[in-house]
Amino acid sequence: MRQLQRVQWEHDRNYHPDVLGLSRYDQLRHYAFHLAKLAGAAADAASGEPTDFLRRRLPDLLLFGLKLATLTNDQLPDQPAGRPPRAETNDRREANQAPRWAQRLARGRAR
User: Fold this and answer.
1) pLDDT in tens, 51-107
2) Rounded to an integer, what distance in angstroms lies between the CA atom of residue 3 and that of residue 9?
3) Is residue 60 part of a domain?
């Protein structure tokens, strides 16, 4: 993740010096406008065809996450975080049905 952060900063330094030259407040405001547009695109995708959002806009969310981490002086870890540990349960039936429920929800057939 840290390498992505560095690459994104180099990109911004070379291709967006106008934004990097702004005060921190103005950079945050600039990024907030972009994130608001991405939120609108996500809402449109949720009610229609998500292909364009997934292909073009979802990567932008990653990039703005990198930009915001850099702007707030957060150094990201070298490696991305792993999956969270799976919750332990004594109810085997519940553990086995949760994935099917999630699959039905994803297909739009939740009860």
Assistant:
1) 989 999 999 999 999 999 999 998 888 877 776 666 655 555 555 455 565 556 666
2) 10
3) yes
> Which position has the token pair 């349960």?
89
- To the question of pTM greater than 0.70 for the whole model, the response is no
Q: Give the tokens for residue 67.
A: 């930009």
Asked, for residue 95, whether it belongs to a domain, the answer is no
Residue 10, in any domain of the structure:
yes
**What is the extent of the structural domain holding 61?**
2-79
The 10s digit of each residue's pLDDT in 76-92 is 888 777 766 666 555 55
Query: Between vectors from CA 50 to CA 66 and to CA 102, what angle results, nearest 5°?
Result: 90
The domain total for the chain is: 1
Asked if residue 87 belongs to a domain, the reply is no
